[in-house]
Design a protein that fits this description.
The structure is a single chain. This protein is an alpha/beta fold and 373 residues long. The chain folds into two domains: 202 residues, SGNH hydrolase (Rossmann fold), CATH 3.40.50.1110; 101 residues, Immunoglobulin-like (Sandwich). Helices cover 29% and strands 24% of the residues. The strands form three sheets. Strands 1, 2, 3, 4, 5 and 6 form a six-stranded parallel sheet that branches. Helix 4 crosses helix 12 and helix 6 packs parallel to helix 8. It is elongated. This is Cellulose-binding protein. Keywords: Carbohydrate metabolism, Glycosidase, Hydrolase, Polysaccharide degradation, Signal. Pfam families: CBM_2, Lipase_GDSL_2. One of its GO terms (molecular function) is polysaccharide binding.
Amino acid sequence: MRSTHHAPSRNASLRAIPVLGLLAALLLSVGGPLAPRATAADTTARAVRIMPLGDSITGSPGCWRAVLWNRLQSTGYTDIDLVGTLSHQGCGQAHDGDNEGHGGERVTDVADQNLLPARLAATLPDIVVMHFGTNDVWSDIAPDRILAAYSRLVEQMRASNPDMKILVARLIPMNPGSCTACAQRVVDFNARIPDWAGATSTDRSPVAVVDQWTGFSTATDTYDGVHPNASGDDKIAARWYPALTALLDGGTPGDPGDPGDPGGGQPSCSASFRAPSVWQGGYQGEVTVTNTSASPVAGWTVTVVPADGARLTQLWGGTLTTAADGTATVTNATWNGTLAPGASTTFGFIASTPATAGTPSATVNCTARAASS
């Protein structure tokens, strides 16, 4: 059992010290960054309270919480309590289902309508684990306004508990069929989170960023382009776990704004394909390259494997090499190879297709290069 401290029993304490000494001992037992806060009705230590905060990705049913809970339990973190005004919402495994994941909610509405303080007062969390803003991004709300809502919520968390520890996610990717612009909006918003966290974090109440975006695929890790399936739940829980256990162990999950990428700070990138224009015998393709790491990318290479026998015939925004089997290798141009964390660039091409080809598609993969030391 980890991360909590148990006070002596009442009878033992009364035998050992006089009344004034007992009061002093109780006051001292409240110290430490995650020590339970005593009330008039509660003079014993309690489990560390963790609030999962967000929208349907967190709460409807938000089965990553079940995966995370059971992993924590199985690795010895048993004196914890997931808290929230909502309870179990499904999932096929036993777990502490309390949460604050309200389906359909926008973080800007929660801030504007002052909804969080009552939820905090009812649950008294020590740690908040927040994946919030997907509905705002979908609604095309400006990143500045979403981040202002984040700041308002952090103020309210600290009013509830000046020692609040806060983990904030870079949102998982989103690619719903009804919102073609959403994928890029998530990238643009995520790019702003590390700087916001660095400016908001304090020694007493740290804000750390947990990268839920990198390595998460809307094709394989969601069932609708937005909400995680079982694979996605596993990935989300795996990203929260080290950051959360660092707090439970009395440490920190990394510097404020560190997205927590795997790979020891090495740059990484992702690539996504779309076909904005199609005609008989060919189409125009576009590939977006995104720096998915916390390190600058000094250059990138993308492989493009077009489906149905298509061949790239023209390219702009990069340098093209084509193999005999039609696989295309594209390296950056001189002007678009350097990408800051979260930043994106695009290159385009023309592809020729056989008459029998179906809807344009291509498999794309990206590798990144670090700056020379």
